[in-house]
Amino acid sequence: MRRSRDRSAVTHTVVIIGYGNPGRQDDAMGFLMAEGIEALGLPCVTSEADLQLQIEDAATISEHDIALFIDASINGPEPFSVSQISPSQEITFTSHSVSPETILAICEEHMKHTPQAWLVGIRGYSFELEEGLTPGALENFEAAFSFITQKLTAWAANPTARIELE
Fold first, then answer.
1. What is the phi/psi pair of residue 147, to 5°?
2. Smaller CB count within 10 Å for the chain: N or C?
3. pTM
4. How far, in Å, CA of 12 to CA of 33, rounded?
5. Strand, helix or coil at 111?
């Protein structure tokens, strides 16, 4: 049974879950994106930056209408990709890896609410033990940051608008 929400005064709440290791070059992009968006102080937007997804993220996203998972992509298209995701029917995880789809499935199963969710994969090129983005990753990061902040700003200005990210 899904939780029923009063939509009479619809205001979308958005959570940004940016993850990656800042000590592994381009892997830092999700983490840095969450920090950058948080610094903007946009209304109705919460940001979480972490090294990796954790099952506790299900509780966080359950409190929002929209969830954006942002990560570096090793093989994705340049400069970034956006895909809407759904709860995984198969819940599998280890102590080192939980997928966004698994987080959604845990949220659906235990919190009885599943936000609309998208995965943004920003193309990276090097993931060595070193700090700082490569020049190509920095360009891709800036393109993704501009795209996401334009969407968030539009949602904040018109909170009843239909949510489209792709």
1. -60, -50
2. N
3. 0.89
4. 20
5. helix
